[in-house]
Amino acid sequence: MRSRVLCGMAAAVALLVTGCGSGAKQVGAAAPAPAGSAATAYPVTASDCAGATTTFTAAPKKIVTSNAAGLELLLWLGAGDKVIGTGFPPGAGTMPSTFADQAAKVPVLGQSVIPKEKLLGSGADLYLDTFADMGSMGGAMGAAPTEQEFAAAGIKHLYLRSTACAAMLKGPQQDLSRVEEDVRTLGAVTGTSVRAAELVAGMEQKVQAVRKALAGLRADQEPSYFFFDYDAGTKQPMAECGRQIANAVITLAGARNVFADCDGDFKAASWEDVVAKDPDWIQLGVRDQGSDAANRKAFDAAEQFLRTFPATKGLKAVQAGHFVRIGSEVTTIAGVRNADTVQQIAHIIHPDLVTS
C-alpha cells in the first residue's frame, strides 16, 4: 500500500473522485474469447498487476460495487441486474437517464466505503473495486478485507485498473486504452463481451473523430490546461498527474496538462505551482450535483473563487474567462463517458476545429 501523505485524511475528498493508487491487486486484460465466438467463452482468467490470476468458470451472479463508477459500467454492459449492493451510491440525477431508475434500486451498503463485515457478509461472488486499498486512511474510512478474507467469503475481487492502480503505471495515460481494457475485461468476466466490444467501438469512434479534427494542430498550438479540483479544497490545490485518467482525456482533447510531469496519479500542489504554470484553460472540476441548476451553482462558486482569490485572479485563463464546466467524475474515473468528455473539452478549446 502506498504510504504517501496524500492518501491520508487530508486527501479524503479527492480520494472519492480519483482513488489513491496502491500495491493492491489490479485487474488485467482477460483472456479473449475464441475467434468467431458470439459471446464470452469460459473459463475467463483475469490477471493482476503482479501476475497473479483470478479465474471465472461462469459469470458472477451477485456483484457488489465499491462506488457508482463501477455500478455505471455494469449498467452500460447490461449486467446491472446482477448488482446486489454498492458503496458511494450515485446521487439523484448523476447517472445517465437511461440507467437512473435501475441504479436507484440498487441497495446501498455504505454511503462511503462499505463496512468490512457488511461486504464480506453480502453474499456477493464478485466485488468490483474502483478504488485501491484504503488501509492508509488510518481506520477513518474502515479497514478493507484482506484477499484471504475475500476468498474465505467466496468473493472474487477485481479492480478497475485504470483508476484504482493508476499510480503503479510505468508511464502516463495518454489515451483511453486502459479504460477500454477495463471495459473488455469486465465484459469478459460478466459474459457481456459483445456489448463490451460495442461500447469500446463507440468510445474509439468518438475519440478518433476528435483526433482527426485536430490532426493539423501543432504541439505549440495546444493550450496549457489545469484541472481545478474545487471539491477537494481550495487551501491547497490537487494536481492531476500524468498517470491519472484525466491526463489522457486532456491530451486527447488537444491540450497540455500543466501537471503531466508530476510523479504518480495525483498529488498536493501549491498555488505558487499553479501560478507558475499560468494555464490557458482551467477546468472547474466539481462533483455532479444531480441537476443542471445545482451544477451551475457549483461551477459558479468554483469560478468565483478563481476570480477573487489573490493568487489566481491574474492568471491568463481567469482573465480571459477560459473556464471548462465539465464535472469531475467523467474526467477522472474510468467510464464509457470519458470519450464524451474528450469531445466536449475539444469543442470548447478548439471550437473552429471540433464543431460538436
Quote the CATH topology of the largest domain.
Rossmann fold
- CATH homologous superfamily descriptor of the largest domain: Nitrogenase molybdenum iron protein domain
Secondary structure class reads alpha/beta
Amount of helix: 25-40%
For the record, the CATH architecture of the largest domain stands as 3-Layer(aba) Sandwich
Distance between the termini: 42 Å
Please give the radius of gyration in angstroms: 20 Å
Could you give the order of strands across the largest sheet? 5-4-3-6-7
Q: Supply the number of structural domains.
A: 2
State the helix count: 14
List SSEs in N-to-C order: HEEEHEHEHEHEHHHEEHEEHEHHEHH
CATH class of the largest domain: Alpha Beta
**Strand content bin:** 5-15%
- Biggest sheet architecture: 5 strands, parallel
Indicate the mean pLDDT.
Answer: 86
Shape: globular
Structure description:
The longest helix has 21 residues, at 193-213. The chain folds into 2 domains: 5-169, Nitrogenase molybdenum iron protein domain (Rossmann fold); 201-349, Nitrogenase molybdenum iron protein domain (Rossmann fold), CATH 3.40.50. The strands form 4 sheets. Strands 5-4-3-6-7 form a 5-stranded parallel β-sheet. Strands 10-8-12-13 form a 4-stranded parallel β-sheet. It has a two-stranded antiparallel ribbon with strand order 1-2. It has 356 residues and is α/β, with parallel strands linked by helices. The chain has 14 helices and 13 strands. Helix content is 35%, strand content 13%.
Compact overview of the structure:
This protein is α/β, with parallel strands linked by helices. Helix content is 35%, strand content 13%.
